[in-house]
Amino acid sequence: MIKPWLAAARLRTLPLSISGIIVGCSLGNEYSWLYMKGGFFCCFGCPVVLKSSLFWLCVLTTIGFQVLSNFANDYGDGIKGTDDDREGEQRMVASGIISPKQMKNAMIITAIITLMLALCVIYVAFGSKNFSYSILFFFLGITSIIAAVKYTVGKSAYGYSGLGDIFVFLFFGWLSVVGSYFLYTKQINFDIFLPATAIGLLSAAVLNLNNMRDRIKDKKHEKNTLVVKIGSQNAKLYHYGLIVGALLSTLFYIYLNYHSPKQLIVLIAFIPLAMNMIVVGKNIIHKELDPELKKVALSTFLYAILFAIFN
Question: How far apart are CA 249 and CA 310, in angstroms?
Fold first, then answer.
């Protein structure tokens, strides 16, 4: 029975979800890439073990939020009938492989585990000091859980009213990057919002592709995503704007913080993104966009890795 749950967790979305954490932690602490490369083991006997733990706890917490969101999306769309004739990956609740009750229980368990991980992050980052910061991040953790669930669940699900792009931008971009940076530094500066914006825009591009693929089905089931509201042609222009916006944000950050030509290596990630723009521009059959989701998601992950190494 593990395969259906792995399918419901949508493992292919996880690299995208942790991209912001990689960027934020790499900016917040110079050893973050070392932690990601060597894991916990590289830090035994090392005075920086606490910060290594913080990085991995952030990764695990973010994965928890993403899995919760994926479970909730499967559940919400499944009980509303939105996934009955979907393109792309099969959904577990809609197909009857996992019952709504089972998925709901899984959501509750995942939410509890993720909240516990978030509390560990808060404790490792702030300890018994900075109580106000602890309260703030606890509130952000609760808000993230609610946002993960309310995307498709309930009558007021924001994914059904065209607000999904905004939430993805804020949570995958600004909160993920700036939040993880703040956990290390206990401060915020303007420059951090540039790579955070890039990650947020690329994450929104993945959602936009998903909504372009599902536009006809979503419209039929009154799931009024942004693509349904603006139409396919405008959605293509919007998609171009997201990717170009991410590129400009990255270039501006490098301009403000330039120290080596190696920083430009991060632009390699935009090569497959440029190819994606060409495919999107020529697209007529919606289901053919499904492979493009993976391309953009992995390009965003590559962006994060290259940024962590060279910036």
Answer: 16
Question: What pLDDT band is residue 129 in, cutting at 50, 70 and 90?
Answer: confident
Dihedral pair phi/psi, residue 178, rounded to 5°: -65, -40
Distance CA 21, CA 63 (A): 10
Cα gap 195→214, rounded to integer Å: 29
> What would the pLDDT profile of 262-285 be if each residue is shown by its tens digit?
999 999 999 999 999 999 999 988
What does the alpha-carbon distance between residue 74 and residue 90 come to, in Å, rounded to a whole number? Answer: 10
Of 85 and 262, more confident: 262
User: 3-11 long-range CB contacts below 8 Å, 24 or more apart?
Assistant: 4/92, 4/97, 4/98, 5/92, 5/98, 5/106, 7/89, 7/90, 7/92, 8/70, 8/71, 8/74, 8/91, 8/92, 8/93, 8/98, 8/103, 8/106, 9/67, 9/70, 9/71, 10/70, 10/89
The CA-based angle 161-69-199, given to 5 degrees, is 80
Residue 72 is encoded by which pair of tokens?
């909730």
Cα 188 to Cα 235: distance, rounded to the nearest angstrom = 33
Q: Distance (Å, rounded) from C-alpha 97 to C-alpha 248? A: 44
Examine the pLDDT at 44 and tell me if it is beyond 50: no
The identity of residue 126, as a single letter, is: F
Domain locations in the chain as residue ranges: 2-310
Rounded to the nearest integer, the mean pLDDT of the chain is 88
Would you say 35 and 52 are in contact if contact means Cβ atoms under 8 Å apart?
yes
Question: What's residue 33's pLDDT?
Answer: 47
Closest CA to 164 of 218, 216, 118: 218
Q: Where are the alpha helices (DSSP H) in 29-159?
A: 32-38, 49-80, 92-95, 100-126, 131-150
